[in-house]
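Materials and Methods. Structural model of Succinyl-CoA synthetase, NAD(P)-binding, alpha subunit. The 292-residue sequence of Succinyl-CoA synthetase, NAD(P)-binding, alpha subunit from Candidatus Filomicrobium marinum was retrieved and submitted for structure prediction as follows.
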Amino acid sequence: MAVLIGPETKVLCQGMTGRTATFHCGRMLSYGTQLVAGVVPGKGGNRHLDLPVYNHVREAIDATGANATIVFVPPNNAAAAIIEAIEAELPLIVCVTERIPILDMVRVRQALIGTQTRLIGPNSQGILVPGVTQLGVMSTVDASPGRIGIASRSASLTSEIVLQTTQAGLGQSTTIGVGGDPVHGVDLKTCVKLFLDDPDTDGVIVIGEIGGTEEEEAAELISELKPTKPIVALVAGRHAPPERRMGHAGAFASSSGGGTALSKIAALQSAGVVVAPNAATVGETMRKTLAV
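The predicted structure was written out as tokens:
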């Protein structure tokens, strides 16, 4: 059983006719994802990638039975696209768009209140169930079916850890990129809970980084649940200078003591999480932890 998506997931693409969306939709189709339609206002009635294009999300859902969407809409209009999908009651939205204005994302977060919709992103590389389905821009080259759940704030480190778990003979049950923008949807804590509840996931890897408090919140949940499944974490940014953005939309180290790599590592270790010493050892750390 996969987390969040599976072979039954029927996917819309909002903004499908754009160049980037066209490329990645082609990848998803080749991987076996059930991409059923696009949504592009003003282009309804056309076909793209041999799929129908609709003007509105609700229209596309009624015609195709879609239960998920991926958003490739540019930053200035991305929040409106997400809110349209929320109002259409889609269970899952994945947004790969980066740097959506923060106030726009505040409105998105308000629109999510009281709904059953899960938002992954923005600035997410997506979700991948190896050999089954891909929803997003995540590399599939080194992925392999397995029983390790990966939740990550970092796209580049996700690719590295997927490779390591494959090389360690562990594979992945599901990999989730929660997104790097400061205001986003599903967080690391929620992903950890999903993996702990998944009978086909034997271990969890959390890839964190400086900025925010998601890792500390995940640590609080782990302390409360005291899970028997092993959890391994990596926190990037131990050597990042304070009060300086490190090129990543959400990565900002503060000198006030919160959101630093050291504070996150301490919280995770206190909760019983095994923290890998560096990015090169995460897969092997999980393999050894599982063997204990």
